[in-house]
Structures are given as structure tokens and as C-alpha cells.
Design brief:
Number of strands: 5
Order of helices and strands: HHHHHHHHHEEEHEHHEHHH
CATH class of the largest domain: Alpha Beta
Distance between the termini: 55 Å
Strand content: 5-15%
Shape: flat
CATH topology of the largest domain: Nucleotidyltransferase, domain 5
Structural class: alpha/beta
Strand order of the largest sheet: 3-2-1-4-5
CATH architecture of the largest domain: 2-Layer Sandwich
Number of helices: 15
Largest sheet: 5 strands, mixed
Number of domains: 5
Helix content: 55-70%
Radius of gyration: 28 Å
Amino acid sequence: MTSGQATNHLKQPKVSDDDKEALCVGRVGKAKEWLQAYHEKKQKALADAETDVQTLTEAELAALTPAERDARKRQQTLDERVVTKLTAAQVAAIHYALCAFFFICRIPFAVIESWSFVAFAKALNPAYAAVMFKRKCLGSTWVKKLRSDTQEKTEAHLDRVVGKKTIIIDGFKDRRGRHVMNISQAKVGFAAYLCTKWFGRKAHDGDTYAKEIQNAVDDGEDFIACVADNTSSNTSMQKGLFGRLFAIYYWFFIGCCVHCLDLLSEDITKLSEFKEILAKFNFITRIILRFSMLTETFMFLQKQRCVTVDLQRPNRTKLPFAV
């Protein structure tokens, strides 16, 4: 969007202030002036909304419970501090850190508009609480920026590693029964997620999967091999994915060794000797992870023994976790 279009967008009364704020972030000129005026307006509204706390008499103070007196004391401590005005660069840096926190910790975006989270941000820095973005801005503008920056860093790191890339394909079904393909790229010592492709519930042949791989790798000159699950739709050299790609790219085509080990482990765990042991392991693991006191005690004892064991609840189709 050009600067002229952005200026016209700001004049539209039907456009919400949150959308205008998301549009103005990172821009200069009229958009920057509008954003600054908008932040000042929000700060003034918050200041006008806050009423001065009346001084309590000794009798009223004595009538308060210890918890109420402590809460009043904490609030007075926060109100008496000197609040430094944040620059635009500082606000953007905090925006980025907050977005990364929500995304990496998988926190629902609606939390950012919760009164308790706003109160927490205000206690940390009242100057930032006044300009903190909303849920829509977090889920669109800043998450897209975080993804774009992460992609740029990943590509730069892959370019610094010597050699060509290997494309890795992991297929599975989601909770709705749809076929899903996770596509990653890797070099020696480094692997990174590339994209995800969704398909319907019906089975698909190698042609459908090959088209998606072609869209992901383009001419394929940067790749040297393809690794996929050991299913007929992937590894078949007739109508499978490998067969279709073999006619297009000069790659090595390799079945996934980890997938073989996974299937082997599942078969082994069906033996009566292992089945009984794994049932006991799952039972104990669930109890430890169910109660926080047991979990903390378990972690403490690990540190005492200088041993680190990450307890997992194995999925029914991922029993290598338990082996």
C-alpha cells in the first residue's frame, strides 16, 4: 500500500482504530504523525479515567484487612515511580519480544486483551501498556513479521552451510482425517521447517504430492536428495512420489530410516515381554506428570543424581518414546 493509499485509509470512519494502528506501524510521514497522535490520545484517556485515590483516615485504614493494606501499598509503590517515555524503536522492540513470547509459548492471542494481562503490562511499564497492540494486530501484522524474519534467518544459515540441501517429507493425518504433508529442508548439522500442505480425506497418488514438492523446490538445483515416509504413495517408483520426481530431478531418493525404526519399535512393543513393562512405565509416568509435587520431586532427584530424563507420554503410534 502506497503512502497516499494509507493516508486515505486513515480518513475512513468505518475503519477501526486497531486496523489503522496496524497500518501505521513502521511507516513515516502522515501515518507516523497519526500513530503518535493516536498514542497520545490513548494515554490521555487512561490518565483521565484514573481517579485520584482519596486518603484514608486512620479508622478506615485500621478497618482494612492485611491483604487489602498490602495491595494498597503495592499500588502506591507503582504510582510513585518515574515512568520514562518509550521511543518508537523501544516500542517496536517490545512488540517483537511480546509477539515471540506468545507464539513460542503457544499462548492464545485473546490473552493479550485480558484485563489481568493488561494490568500486568501496566505494572511493568505503564508507558508500554498504553501502546500495546490488540489481538487482531498480534495475529496478523506481528506474527507475519516474526515468520518473515525467522525465514530470512533460516535461509541465511542454510546458505552458510556447505553443500546442497535435502528435502524431508513427513506425511500424516490430522484430527479431521485430512492428509497432511510437512516439508522441511536440511543440510549437514542443520534442519529447518519449510512449509505444510493439506489434502483431502481421500487417498492421493504420487502426482498430487509431486506437484507440491515442485512448487516448494522450484527447479531443484539447490537440492541433492529427497527423504520420505516408507509408504507406497511415496516410495513407489511407478506411480509414487519418488517415481514422479525421478523423471524431473537428478536426486537421491531415500526412505526414512526413522520411520522404519518407528514401525520396528511398534512391532517389538507388541511382544508380551515388552508390553507388560511399557504398561507399568506409562502408568508411573502418568502419575508423576499428573501431580506437580511428584514432578518437582522427580526433577530434584534427577539433579541430585546428575541424570536428566525427560518423561514423555508416548502416543500409540509413537512408542519409540517409551523404549
